[in-house]
Amino acid sequence: MLPALRVKVAVLVAVLAVLCVPGCSSSQSAEEETPQPRPSAPYWGNRGYTLPDNAFTREGTVVTATCSMGARYAGVNVQAWDPERWELRETRNFFIPVDAAFSNYPDVKDVHSPLVDLCGVSSDSPSPYAVDDLEYVTPRVRALFDLAYTRMAVVLRDPDGRTTHAGYVESGGNADDFVSLSDAQGDDEQNAVMAPDGRSVWFTYITGDGERRIGSRSTEGDHRLSDEGPAIGHDLPLTVTGKPPRAVQANMVHLAPDGRRLTATAPKIYGHVFPTRDSSGPLTAASGRSATLLSGCVGIVGWVGDERVLCRTRSANFRTVDARSGRPEGNAVAVVREDDGRVAEGMVVSADGEKFIASVHSPNDRSGQPVGLGDFRVVSTSGEGAAVPVSADSLTNDTVFLEWR
Fold first, then answer.
1. Which uninterrupted H or E stretch holds 118?
2. How many CB atoms lie within 10 A of CB 296?
3. Does residue 363 have a cis bond before it (omega within 30 degrees)?
4. Strands 297-303 and 308-313
5. Residues 6+ apart with CB under 8 A from 60
């Protein structure tokens, strides 16, 4: 669940490939070597993309997002961490434009956006989505950013409080550095998220005759609307993956390491593990016929290898489940004692599948806590050894852990 007054705000194994320019010899000096980006790691399911070598794309990095707000400022801080020492490697700031929907309030149209999930949830203003457990929130918020965390998608409100447009902001800009991808009167574009390469923003929209669709607009050129497929309205978020990009409208979407399957849930759709889609759209009853139901799973944290998924169970523990049979494997992993009075929710699994990060908080009341230091713990997916507290002081109970590369 997400806090009230927020102080708000792939694993790419980046390698230096040495390529000779024409005419060079094997004795070329180190000064003449040119670093080249390499494709993102296979478990992203985005093998076709190349990424720059920086703190956010390197192996062994945890990425977090925290919303910050002041009297004249609203923004999101995205931070790259060393998960061994919890030392900060780099911070990127995304200013939130004044017209962006980062909270819902009376007399304006409610907007479905993961940015509202991150920044605008309180005991008086709940999440725009039906469920706000952290297993649901994490993939929604991750979808706001491209693979390299250079752009963040936003939904912009017109002054009339009813018209909404998809747009984006660049990292490191100021409050005026944003792009609205449409200015058509009467637009109803919500659930804005970034394509993996940051070159398009995807969203759900309602046509003039009331049809529900998924659309995209390029971040370059004339931003013309491209229709991408059917939608089921604004109530479920989008996740965009693959090359060429495809969107799935569902909750708790995580790609398997081999990119062939994904986890997802949607109301009235049976199952948790589905084949990767080759077109954009929501989960359907037909999708459910080939899906696997993960026994006892109430929250999907992520993949533990190609064939196993880490779930939060009905008994409030965590357990690895076979993605083909749906049966639990190994021991249940308890993050808090039964008499602790608090609950644990999972956010990310490490790239090697050996650890995950959980948030510990009062039951049903993350959004009611005063802003302060969060209780985050690194836990073994096998249950071996003691949980290790995350020792970074700048991480508040608002923080969402987005990725462990």
1. helix 114-119
2. 17
3. no
4. antiparallel
5. 82, 83, 84, 405
CA-to-CA distance for 167 and 296, rounded, in angstroms? 39
Quote the strand ranges of 256-370, DSSP E: 261-265, 273-275, 281-282, 297-303, 308-313, 318-322, 328-333, 343-349, 355-361
The CA-atom distances, in angstroms, between 28 and each of 22, 32, 37, 38, 210 are 12, 7, 20, 21, 63
Let me know if 72 is exposed, middle or buried by CB neighbors in 10 A (0-12, 13-18, 19+): exposed
0.90 exceeded by pTM: no
The answer to whether the beta carbons of residues 157 and 163 sit under 8 Å apart is yes
In this predicted model, what pLDDT tens digit does every residue of 302-349 receive, in sequence order? 999 999 999 999 988 999 999 999 999 989 999 998 888 899 999 999
CA gap 369, 390 in Å, rounded: 19
Answer for the pair 4, 368: CB distance below 8 angstroms, yes or no. Answer: yes
Model confidence pLDDT, tens digit, residues 365-402? 655 455 567 899 999 999 998 899 998 878 888 899 99
